[in-house]
Fold this sequence. Notes:
The protein is of the alpha/beta class. 30% of the residues lie in helices and 22% in strands.
Amino acid sequence: MSTPFTPDGERPNNGVSGLPAPRPNPTQSRRLIEVTDLRTRFKTARGMVRAVDGVSLTLDRGRTLGIVGESGSGKTVLSRSIMGLLPKRNVVRDGTVVYNGVELVGASDAEVRDLWGAEMAMIFQDPMTSLNPVLKIGKQITEGMRFHLGMDRATAEKNALSLLREVGIPEPERRLKQYPHELSGGMRQRVMIAVALACGPKLLFADEPTTALDVTVQAQILNLLQKQQRERDMGMVLVTHDLGVVAGRTDEIAVMYAGQIVEKAATATLFRHVRHPYTEALLRSIPSMDAPSHSRLQAIPGRPPDLVAPPPACRFAPRCPYAQEKCHVVEPPLVELEPGHAFRCWFPVGATAEAVEAAAAAQAAGAGAATGGDGAAVAVTEGTTTDEGGT
């Protein structure tokens, strides 16, 4: 079956399906997105809500990054902040977001609008509220192709049919003429994927793409996303609260808590050597198939902090079983004990406090030398930079 887009995600000439894929250019940079010290704050009557607080990450083309955390940890706001999908009022966004060499923070509405759909797209959490209830499915899929790719109606509808077949929707000709409420939850999610893929984006954000779906449909949707990501050589950010979802489907995982990344590593490394107590707690909360019937699930005690006035030091300390006095007084930096494995904890799982302090001191000294010794306490990790001097 032909596809209306080439496997590397480039737009085909004149929107004609079935074109041969161009040969990849080995000299072309694979870096898609580079986020440095991104901060997103919302102005409220109670004060500034620090929804995203000093997050740095990178993603290359063809790679999948999993962002994991509880509800309220800042996962969705981080994705929307990277894309620029934020309200126009009462929002402050600082830091840098570089997509394909283009700075997005401070870009005009017209500049980012040209990127949405064509270069980067998002699969939203609830397709029933994200799809327009008064527009037919065909109209919602073809709209982006006609706007960004300049396709005529007939060509756009032909490609929409191909997309619906590609995402596994039966009877696509009939589905194009239906409204969202006439489809099941799983089919609506597939339509959302088709809408997101319609213009062949290079970067795809999947925000809780399996919420409210039964287990069988969840697996189908995740397999579909993984297949499309590989065939199109897209970069993908998979946002979820479930570490089990990202276990075999991501190259790297970033664990978020209270607006910060608290642990970041290659997927296999993170599961093999958990360092942060919050990550350990998330893993323990996953139901085990080997547990006896009616076993009590392990929950994380307490609740996430108020982001208007977060704890002054470690934000997980009030809920952490390993917390000591230092955790409530000194904010831990993002350090690496092993290359590529960063975490934010003074007393990590399976490591000594002395080793963490030594690594933090070495990183601070190296960062001070790199910045001319201005005394700023900066923790530098591979692809991650956070300013620990406060906002």
